[in-house]
Amino acid sequence: xxxxxSQRWQxxxxxxxxxxxxxxxxxxxxxxxxxxxxxGGSPHHRQVEEISFQSMSIETKAEFLKISTDENIxxxxxxxxxxxxxxxxASNPITLEVYGTLVVWTPARMALVTSPRNFRNAxxxxxxxxxxxxxxxxxxxxxxxxxxxxxxxxxCGFSFHNSDASTAAALSNRYVQAMSLSGKIxxxxxxxxxxxxxxxxxxxxxxxxxxxxxxLVDREEFVDEQIDTIIRLYETTGxxxxxxxxxxxxxxxxxxxxxxxxxxxxxLLTDLLSSTGN
Length: 278
Prior knowledge:
Number of strands: 5
Radius of gyration: 38 Å
Strand order of the largest sheet: 1-2-5-4-3
Strand content: 5-15%
Shape: rod-shaped
Number of domains: 1
Low-confidence stretches: 1-41
Number of helices: 8
Order of helices and strands: HHEEHEEEHHHHH
Largest sheet: 5 strands, mixed
Distance between the termini: 164 Å
């Protein structure tokens, strides 16, 4: 009995020792938690992602710094600004702090710091705004190229001559490009003039303030006015080209009729002379 009792006591001691000793997986988890936790801080996740946008055969890339943390966002402000300024962006960064979320934005680099529970919605709002801003920038770039031909094409809006016949195809292409830009800005306008949400959400507030700070509404209005001016010019030139084409065809038709009448008169004279000779 004493031997059986001692064996039972040894088994209980071994079981207690095994319960108090952490497993290999548990020790790894503890190590990960310690690595993810700053000195006296809370766990956070940091990632830099390269994103690309494409519009009207123009593509651009931007870098996106994502920090998901429950810590105070103020401690990350200087870090985000330094990371933004380290890039090649010539724009002054837009800095927003909304509902415990920090956004530092430029067209080439952007940074987001927020809590894990709000991260997905905030990320979608920043990416949606970036896509809208990029598409508007592309339209502005193409519009500036259209202005280069505006002064040279102004005389064609008043009159069109035979010497300008070679430019008719170019004028037609520029009119098509202007109408394409008009359609693009019309499709983009609802995303710029989004009505405010009630009750407001983090995503809606981020999008609204980013659009306000970047003056997307004013830029869209300026672009729309410029496109209307260019379209009016090429609509007028189109009318002049059409009038010239119709007049040229009428001119050719008149000469064809004249030649036919002259041929008919010659045949009549020939018949008269032949009958008189007989």
